[in-house]
Amino acid sequence: MSHLPFENWIFNRENLTSDQIAELEAHLKSCQHCNRIQSGWSEVEQLLQKPPLTPAPPQFVNRFQASLAQRKALQQKRQIRAVFIGLGSAFVLLSIAFIVRLLWIIPPAQLLSDMIGWVALAPQRWSEIQYIFFYWAGQIPPLALMVFVFLLAGWSTLLLGLWFLTLQRLSHLGVHEQ
Amino acid sequence: MINHEMDMLIRAQNGDEEAFTSLVLQYQNPVYNLCYRMLGNAQEAEDAAQETFWRAFQAIRRYDRNRSFATWLLSIAAHYCIDQQRKKRITTMEIEDWMEEVIPDHTPEPEKQVRENEERQSIQSLLSSLNPQDRAAVILRYWYECSEEEISQALQLSVSAVKSRLHRARLRLAQQYQSQHYAMTERIHDESPAF
After folding, report:
1. Nearest by Cα to B121 from A7, A61, A54, A24
2. Which residue of A has its CA nearest to B45?
3. Residues of A within an 8 Å Cβ radius of B
4. Is the complex ipTM more than 0.90?
């Protein structure tokens, strides 16, 4: 026996016409399957008429606030770690690329001897640089030197500040999805 | 939407945590109830509700103010609970398989325990017979009086899919109720003294 459309009608009685209700009632008298569904649904429907709303446990909001602070701190820490790992990886990769390129141009033996020579001459080079610096510093008027130092310090501070600000903004990106 | 709530939403979208907390205060009960009905366990429900609000906090800037905030929140909660149910089902199946292999069943009078649970949790046990998405559709329909359109938005389904899920769920609930009722009647008959 076909149970359609009667199965649908059982669950949508409020939308049926009087003829359809009469047809459904007649079918229910002869069909045990639909009759069982009808009686089961009427019981379930009563249970679902005013289902109880289970309230949240006490202090739910306080626990949310505490967990929010923890989760934010954890996510910011992860974000900072990710930024530093990214920057570090980029630096390592660039260094490897630079070394490979260098070895490609200069034979390794010559590169090694150049490096040893450079290290051996480093103290001499340093004293030469110091000599040049102090020579030119003596030539420049003191006021101009002070302005130069002030400008250099100012720009360095500004760039460092911008760098920290960028890192901080990057660390907050994970907390609020854009 | 009430002006005060809209004001709180705008402030929360601009990063005001206090405003977001007041939204948590306002919606804690509906969100917790949905999680409880979906998961059937108080501790898991609280964890799920907390996770729902954390996800909402992270995504609040993407919330479209033309939509109902309650439906948006319930949608996050329903999706999270559906995922949890799927994961739990896989884990439970793995543990049950393992226990069948290594641990013999020593449960005393399991029928008695089942009967006690049946008496205490009639709605919850009926709900648990449904698959997670059908259960979410029934909870949204009967606990929150959501229309089929709202359920379709919350569960990201078409309206016809929601209708079909609700029909299937109602049929399943009716059959489940009948079979529980029939089983209980049988047991009462079996245990009654012979005349």
Report:
1. A54
2. A56
3. 7-8, 10-11, 36-41, 43-44, 47-48, 51, 53-57, 60-61, 63-65, 67-68, 71, 175-178
4. no
